[in-house]
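Continuing the series of single-chain predictions for the mutant panel. This is the parent chain; the variants come on the following pages.
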Amino acid sequence: MTDDNDVAGLQRRLAEFAAARDWQPYHTPKNLAAALSVEAAELLEIFQWLTPEQAERVMDDPDAAHRVADEVADVLAYLLQFCQVLGVDPLAALAAKIDRNEVRFPVRKRGGGSESGTTDVDLRKDRHSSE
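Parent structure:
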């Protein structure tokens, strides 16, 4: 049984919304990836000229908080639609990525090294978990 607030339920609602408007022909992987990128850029735009301190407090302003929530929703909506079109389980994909990153980026001991002997120099070339 699915709930409207779980991934499958949200994907179903998004698909029904698009179908009711005859948007499915436009929901190709390329178009959805482009739309996802645009929405992520709109989220970034909110933070573009903020200092790190201002960015930390962005949710204190109700108008800014509303904009952030709306853009997060847009990003997630396009990501879920993209995953549905290509048959990607987003939660399984994330779990698998975390598993790979736990191996790829071992826990570092204090003093800069890691349990596997990796040094800070080795880690500079490999900092982003999304790569």
